[in-house]
């Protein structure tokens, strides 16, 4: 069973499985006075990871939930949509922000994923100043090709 601190990215996993199934751990029901965010995170952990929308991935990643499984999915989405953004299309800044603001040790544990994100971030244009600052901080801290 993986723990929250285990940041090792799996080689492959079943996208039809939920985070609860992948982690082998079911969270107890949220308390009655839980915030909508907490209730939503609990609900999203029960859904198959392959069905999560970018904004749902951003919510979970922003809470450091399921990173070993969700970061590869998020980086894949960002990589696949980056060319459309460069052509003037819409890009999910929330997902990008959630991904690039993870702690440096996350990226140290996943250097190949960090390189893929570095390559994706390098082509993005027209982002808000705030997202650009976070990308620059990620690029400065993430493992490089050295």
Computed over alpha carbons, the radius of gyration is 15 Å
Our estimate of the beta-strand percent is: under 5%
Largest sheet: none
What is the helix fraction of residues, given as a range? 55-70%
Q: Would you count the extended β strands for me?
A: 0
Multimeric organization: single chain
Structural class from helices and strands? mainly alpha
* Helical segment count: 8
Overall shape: it is: globular
Low-confidence stretches: 1-5
H-E string: HHHHHHHH
Distance from N terminus to C terminus (CA atoms, Å) equals 33 Å
Descriptive notes:
- This protein is mainly alpha-helical.
- It is 57% helix and 0% strand.
- It has 8 helices and no strands.
- α3 (54-62) packs across α4 (67-86).
- The protein is globular.
- The model is unreliable at 1-5 (pLDDT under 50).
Brief write-up:
Helix content is 57%, strand content 0%.
Properties at a glance:
single chain; 146 residues; mainly alpha; 57% helix; 0% strand; disordered N terminus
SSE map:
Blueprint: H1 19-23, H2 36-45, H3 54-62, H4 67-86, H5 93-100, H6 104-108, H7 111-123, H8 129-141
Helix pairs in contact: 3-4, 3-5, 4-7, 5-8
């Amino acid at each position: 069973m993986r723990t929250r601190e285990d940041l090792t990215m799996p080689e492959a996993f079943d996208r039809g499985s939920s985070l609860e199934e992948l982690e082998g751990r079911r969270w107890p029901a949220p308390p009655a006075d839980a915030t909508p965010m907490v209730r939503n995170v609990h609900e999203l952990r029960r859904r198959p990871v392959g069905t999560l929308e970018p904004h749902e991935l951003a919510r979970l990643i922003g809470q450091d939930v399921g990173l070993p499984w969700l970061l590869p999915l998020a980086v894949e989405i960002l990589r696949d949509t980056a060319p459309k953004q460069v052509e003037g299309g819409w890009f999910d800044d929330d997902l990008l922000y959630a991904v690039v603001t993870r702690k440096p040790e996350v990226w140290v544990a996943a250097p190949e994923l960090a390189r893929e994100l570095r390559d994706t971030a390098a082509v993005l244009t027209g982002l808000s100043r705030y997202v650009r600052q976070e990308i620059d901080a990620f690029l400065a801290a993430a493992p490089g090709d050295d």
